[in-house]
Amino acid sequence: MKANPQDDRAAAQLTIAIVGYGLGLEVNEIAGPTRGSAKSAFARQVAMYLAHVAFEMSLNRVAIAFERDRSTVGHACHLIEDRRDAIAFDDWIESLESLLREAFGARQREAA
């Protein structure tokens, strides 16, 4: 995906919505300006990681889209990557990643 702040924000919102649904959280709990609860912070870390890998966004683009610092995004990506050693967690992340990649592919096909 080419760098376009509006598209990046839309990708972040889609990712947040899917992660929120999967974890039973409201979008505003995940996307709020503060850290929030541990569960909402974890959901945001998952969403940032998925935006990075599924939409092929740089850490800087993810940071801008999520209105966070780049180092925060990097930290989140490392934490989620480390947790992927657990098979059940990896399967869950993989399913969300596949869903988002399909959305990305459909958008690319539509734009062509």
Comma- or semicolon-separated keywords:
79% helix, 112 residues, mainly alpha, Chromosomal Replication Initiator Protein Dnaa, Chain: A, single chain, 6 helices
How many individual helices? 6
Major sheet details: none
CATH superfamily: DnaA protein, C-terminal DNA-binding domain
* SSE arrangement, N to C: HHHHHH
Tell me the fraction of residues in β-strands, as a range: under 5%
Number of domains: 1
Share of helix among residues? over 70%
Uncertain spans, ≥5 residues at pLDDT below 50?
none
The mean pLDDT is: 90
CATH topology descriptor: Chromosomal Replication Initiator Protein Dnaa, Chain: A
CATH class: Mainly Alpha
Please tell me how large the radius of gyration is.
13 Å
CATH structural architecture: Orthogonal Bundle
Number of strands: 0
Shape: globular
Distance linking N and C termini? 13 Å
Describe the structure.
- The chain has 6 helices and no strands.
- The longest helix has 25 residues, at 87-111.
- The protein is mainly alpha-helical and 112 residues long.
- The chain has a single domain (5-111), classed as DnaA protein, C-terminal DNA-binding domain (Chromosomal Replication Initiator Protein Dnaa, Chain: A).
- The model has no long low-confidence stretch (mean pLDDT 90).
- Helices cover 79% and strands 0% of the residues.
- The protein is globular.
Question: Short summary of the structure?
Answer:
With 112 residues, the chain is mainly α. Helix content is 79%, strand content 0%.
